[in-house]
Amino acid sequence: MSERAAPFFCPYCGDEDLRPSEAGHGAWECHGCRRAFQLKFLGLLSPTNGGKAHDQHDG
Question: What is the pLDDT along the chain (59 residues), one digit of tens a residue?
Fold first, then answer.
């Protein structure tokens, strides 16, 4: 199992003071601008389908 990837900076203010949030998987809090946000992996891009992400399905 790989470690979870962490963002390097806040997408809103660019600050690096980020901490994982208790709101759920992929949720982060920026203590610079006091915003909370969530990251989600959508899939891999493919050059054969116009660059759209592949659907991710469990199972």
Answer: 455 678 999 999 999 999 999 998 899 999 999 999 999 888 898 888 666 665 655 54
Closest among 19, 53, 58, 52 to 36, alpha carbons compared: 19
18 token code pair: 């980020």
Report which residue type is found at 2: S
Q: 5: which strand partners?
A: none
Length of the chain: 59
Nearest-angstrom CA–CA distance, 33 and 13: 7
* H or E segment to which residue 31 belongs: none
How many whole angstroms separate alpha carbon 6 and alpha carbon 3?
A: 9
pTM over 0.85: no
